[in-house]
Design brief:
With 374 residues, the chain is an alpha+beta fold. The longest helix has 21 residues, at 2-22. The protein is built from seven helices and 14 strands. The strands form three sheets. An eight-stranded antiparallel barrel has the order 2-3-4-5-6-7-8-9. Strands 11-14-12-13 form a four-stranded mixed β-sheet. A two-stranded antiparallel sheet has the order 1-10. Helices cover 22% and strands 39% of the residues.
Length: 374
């Protein structure tokens, strides 16, 4: 009867182990990938001025190439161009002089993904919102209409009646500008998205051909398409920790009824933390003794195995660089154990956590490979 119980318990144990081996449990993690993108937009501009709102609307286009450094921050070089407008109301009974003029305005922007900053990284999010701030130049071209307006305004003296005198400047001119804006993008796929952008631009006086002692400005409302070069993210499977199996203890309790041979005392696991210099995957001389400690332990306990996990600090680099460093730090320890100390490859396991997991509170200590032999 006791033998039957023992055989039955062993069969149950084997069945439980085979089922668990077939089920691969864990979680899938999204890994951001830095990437370039191209953006083409068109829309309308409102140039601030004294004329009625409808008379200050003009067409505008914009092209940009950008680079997304991280989940939240990027940069782009944008070139906005076409037309701005100038005008004033006919408060004194004179014939209004409203006209358009051409410009080209490149700018360098720092961009922010507000959705990822506020709600966390999710590459499958369909609608995302962003913001940007930047500086640039605006080359306002010469205008024949400005010459005519200047000749017209020279016939009248506005200063006494209205408190200011328009000083038209009909030459081409280069202006510094600052700009800021908001964006909304709908993601069709990982490569393509369509979106809206609104931006405000401020320039020095005389951009609208009038010198009145205050900065000039304009607003752009744009719609367009964006194309991402290459994948914007990858996936990484993180297996769930294996459950602890306690069936063996129950079997021993049932079949051992008489004193048997003494059971050797449990061997304590050995842990060694091998630290690296910033941006390095080479084992320093001061850390090599720790590798030897692992090898000595495994030679003394022939059934022991070692798990080596590489890390990188989150305070420097980005995910792509830190993944490479963490992997290299794990593999250099694996190589040393195999080639210098003759430890069999079947007894060595390794993993890489990049900078997503930080085992130590102090940033610099996370440039490490943690080795646990047991």
């Amino acid at each position: 009867m006791k033998m039957k119980k023992t055989i039955l318990s062993c069969l149950m144990l084997i069945g439980a182990l085979s089922v668990s081996a077939q089920e691969q449990k864990g979680t899938t993690e999204y890994v951001f990938e830095p990437h370039w993108y191209l953006q083409l937009q068109g829309g309308a501009q409102y140039t601030t001025g004294e004329a009625d709102f409808g008379k200050m609307i003009s067409p505008t286009i914009q092209g940009a190439i950008g680079y997304q450094f991280s989940k939240s921050i990027g940069a782009r070089l944008a070139i906005n161009a076409w037309q701005s407008k100038t005008g004033w109301r006919d408060d004194a009974g004179f014939t209004p002089k409203n006209f358009s003029y051409s410009y080209v305005a490149p700018a360098l922007d720092l961009t922010f993904d507000l959705s990822n900053i506020i709600a966390g990284y999710n590459p499958n999010r369909k609608l995302s919102f962003g913001a940007f701030i930047g500086i640039g130049l605006n080359y306002r071209m010469q205008s024949d209409d400005a010459k005519e307006a200047k000749a017209y305004m020279d016939q009248y003296v506005y200063k006494d009646e209205f408190g200011w005198t328009p000083m038209y400047d009909d030459d081409a001119c280069l202006f510094f500008k600052g700009q800021a804006g908001l964006t909304a993008d709908y993601h069709i796929s990982d490569a393509f998205s369509i979106g809206l952008e609104g931006n405000f631009n401020m320039l020095s006086d005389r951009y609208n051909f009038k010198k009145v002692g205050n900065p000039d400005s304009y607003f752009n409302l744009l719609a367009g398409i964006k194309y991402n070069f290459g994948p914007t993210y990858s996936t990484r499977f993180i297996p769930a920790p294996e459950p602890e199996i306690r069936y063996v203890d129950k079997i021993v309790e049932k079949i051992v009824e008489v004193p048997g041979p003494a059971v050797p005392a449990a061997v304590e696991p050995l842990r060694r933390d091998i630290f690296f210099e910033i941006n390095k995957t080479i084992i320093r001389d001061s850390e090599k003794q720790k590798v030897q400690d692992i090898a000595d332990y495994m030679n003394a306990h022939q059934t022991s195995k070692v798990m080596i996990t590489g890390y990188a600090d989150a305070g420097t680099g980005n995910n792509r660089i830190n993944d490479r460093l963490a992997k290299g730090r794990a593999l250099v320890v694996v190589k040393a154990l195999k080639e210098q100390y003759g430890i069999a490859e079947s007894r060595i396991s390794w993993d890489s956590k990049g900078s997503r997991v930080q085992p130590f509170a102090e940033n610099d200590l996370n440039r490490v490979s943690i080795c646990i032999a047991e």
